[in-house]
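Notebook entry, structure prediction.
Reason for the run: the old model in the group folder had no record of what sequence produced it. Starting over properly, with the input documented here first.
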Amino acid sequence: MSAACPEEPRAGETPDRTGPGAPVTVWDVDLTQAIDHRATCRDLLSDDERARASRFVRDVDRWRFEASHAALRLVLGLRCGSDPRALVFGATPSGKPHLVGEQAGSCRFSLSHSGSRALIGLSSSAEIGVDVEEMRPMPDLLRIAQAHFAPREIAALETLAPRDLTVAFFACWTRKEAVAKATGQGLSLRLDSFAVSVTPERAELLAIPEGTAAWSLHALPTAPDHLAAIAIMAADTGFLRRTLPPDWAAGLSTISQRGP
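New structure, fully documented this time:
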């Protein structure tokens, strides 16, 4: 597994660290080259994951699903000291995925992918959520915000010039999605039931979801034209950012060749 996912950062790479101890790890994954290794990505997946991938209408969505879930298995296998293919996933009634079987409870995780990027958050104890979005022109951003966001978020967005609105909207969106994933409620959590900052540079949770207490919220550096965030259900908690090498999917063939 080391060929595809080194234990230490690559030569010359300095991971971004925030907060004391940085107990949460976020892997930033470039999916671009994975298309050239689609078969080996698929080989790591379970029958259920392959079936889910097959339901996407667009082929580009299928291979990005396959690649991002192969990357999830790769980094979880490294974290847990397990064969990535042997990991078994379950889901809560609200749909939040978790490990079951031998690795049950060993690591909490969150996966998001959009465009050419995937993010994988890992935590030993705190519930976490990550979200990444490829920014794209959308003429109805304010209408979407007015339909779904909290009043203070809408008010902040309405003051912005058009050139600043897109970045602020996606900053707000990724933070809200990350919080919703961390709670485990996902789409069932009303997005207007809590509030986050819209300033791209600084992530803040301005009003917390009902029934929760301590939180840490961070904007994540990632690829150009993408915005990302991580929400952690613990106070004063930082993160360690790591990246897979761009050709990470090429190394998956060594795992496939080992056999079961």
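Summary: The first helix runs from residue 38 to 43.
The old model has been moved to the deprecated folder.
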